[in-house]
Amino acid sequence: MEYVSPEGLRSDGRRPMEMRQIRAEIGAVSKADGSAIFEMGNTKVIAAVYGPREVQNRSQQMSDKALVRCEYSMANFSTGDRMRKPKGDRRSTEISLVIRQTMEECILTHLMPRSQIDIYVQVLQADGGTRSACINAATLALADAGIPMLDLVTSCSAGYLNSTPLLDLNYVEDSAGGPDVTVGILPKLDKVTLLQMDSKLPIDILENVMQLATEGCKAIANYIREILLENTKQLEYRRGS
Amino acid sequence: MEQRYANCWRLTVNEKKFIESSLLSELRVDGRGSLEYRKLSIKFGKDNGSAEVQLGETRVMSFVSAELVQPYKDRPNEGTLSIFTEFSPMADPSFEPGRPGESAVELGRIIDRGLRESRAIDTESLCVLSAKLVWAIRIDIHILDNAGNLVDAANIAALASLSTFRRSECSLGGEDGQQVVVHPPEVREPLPLIIHHLPVAVTFGFFSNENLVVLDPTYHEEAVMTGSMTVTLNANGDVCAIQKPGRQGIFQRVIMHCLKLAHVKAADITTKIIDAVEKHNIQREVQKVKRHSNCFTD
Fold first, then answer.
1. A94: which chain B residues are within 8 Å (Cβ-Cβ)?
2. A single GO molecular function, which one (chain A) (predicted)?
3. Are A34 and A235 in contact, with CB atoms under 8 Å apart?
């Protein structure tokens, strides 16, 4: 199948290096300490953060750092065919682990010993790149909760189809069976914390695709920073100072 | 969830400090260079498709089996490949019996992604009757002893067992040509799987000091390290999977450097696997030859 037309356009009308429209909203869950909705095109994700709070299971308590937990789930209605997926299948267990370890890297856990931080992310609409959207939503929610962080982690995916590197794959491109590289970076430190890739790709092309995904991450980081700044201004305005 | 810090607790602060400070002077606890693998040995079982891999003290067993099943509706002409991991509580005190934990799931997914998404096994040749019957290949990986770097050991075990696996031959018969006949191994020689390439996993460990990169981390180093990356690639230098699940952030140039190193190591391991498989195949052929003692008497 043709994923990039001779005119250089993709199936949804984007250019190869173009990202989907991103939109973020802070404060989606009223009971949570921090929450956010993050949209990348038709992919929509909600994240809620609780904590730092007392550790629920005493045996997991750590005296030198906070315990971070993460749960990823996909709503039954998030995909085209409505399927009842068993909770805790292999895919979501792995994604939960990946998100947790990525967020753990940026949270200053040593400042909150003997406490626990819970991150819940749920996919409301899935159209490719759910892993990245979840990480971006979780970053926003953590920032909203006021949890001390080293940096904002942002994530973006990139692929390689029809010998062209493509930024931010949608579902059709993702399920084409081509390579899919998901990168998560700490934008200020310029370090890569998350890197996942599958299918087959020579090393030198991988470098280009990874670079493209990193650029995407940086663009998302700028956007998230803007949203947070806007939110802070709003809060300040409401306080009336 | 509970097992993630289990082996950190087992080490004392002094031990951790010792490992880290000796790494700074380019020394590893077991006397290896920082970019050296432990000794790898591959043994094969009596049955086709079973292999036991020993990487240093880490021991992993893998067993491949096949059965005829109905294919998935969206892929009527393709056989299936599934991977199951079993972390025996015998191998490590932090492994708990019952449902596979997070690390077992992650291990399975890394191997699965490397093998399946890169199409290492030709699944179309596993089709017997389109939309009716295909072979379902199942790889069972058992961890027998955990001394660090389970991913690489398990991946090598899976590859070795897949390379020696033989499935019974099938043919279509009957009046309508829809009857499937499975020939027992005595009647017709079982067939090997068609393997396009061998994706080998190579794991790196990272430490809080940015300049430290270690290949094939041991159990103790795993407790100290702050991040890891597994690169799965074949001998041609195609990257089939990468897994760097969060934790310690590293620069992109370090990643590229690791990829190049991994390519060399993967080629090494590939030749080791192929050699071992060939040796095993020759041995099996030799065993098959029936000798009559009186032929050689004079």
1. 105-106, 109
2. RNA binding
3. no
The CA distance from B263 to the nearest CA of chain A, in Å, is 9
- Put simply, the chain B residues between 261 and 290 with a CB less than 8 A from any chain A CB are 263
> Which candidate in A58, A72, A83, A93 is best for mutational testing of the B interface (most B CBs within 10 A)?
A93
Percent of chain A whose predicted confidence (pLDDT) is above 70: 98
The pLDDT value given to residue B82: 92
> What residue in A sits closest to B208 (Cα-Cα)?
A105
Whether residue A195 lies within 8 A of chain B, CB to CB, comes out as: yes
CATH number assigned to the domain with residue range B3-288, chosen from the 4 options 3.30.230.70, 3.40.50.620, 3.20.20.70, 3.40.50.410: 3.30.230.70
Q: Among A96, A102, A197, select the one facing B242 at the smallest CB separation.
A: A197
Residues of A in contact with B119 (CB under 8 A): 200
pLDDT by 10-residue block (mean), chain B, 298 residues: 51 87 88 90 89 93 93 88 89 81 89 89 88 91 91 95 90 80 85 92 90 90 90 90 89 91 93 94 85 59
**ipTM of the complex, rounded to two decimals:** 0.88
Q: Nearest-CA residue of chain A relative to B102?
A: A93
The CATH superfamily of A22-239 is GHMP Kinase, N-terminal domain (3.30.230.70)
Domain-wise residue ranges, chain B = 3-288
- For A169-221, the pLDDT digits (tens) are 999 998 888 899 999 999 998 999 999 998 889 998 999 999 999 999 999 99
A13-27, A70-84, A227-241: which range is least confident on average? A70-84
Chain B hits for A185, Cβ within 8 Å:
249
The rounded distance, in Å, linking the Cα atoms of B197 and A200 is 11
Is the separation of the CB atoms in B217 and B148 below 8 Å? yes
Distance of residue B46 Cα from the nearest chain A Cα, in angstroms = 32
Q: How far is A200 from chain B (nearest CA, A)?
A: 4
Q: State whether residue A201 sits within 8 Å of chain B by CB.
A: yes
* Subunit contact B246:A90, Cβ cutoff 8 A: no
The pLDDT value recorded for residue B228 is 92
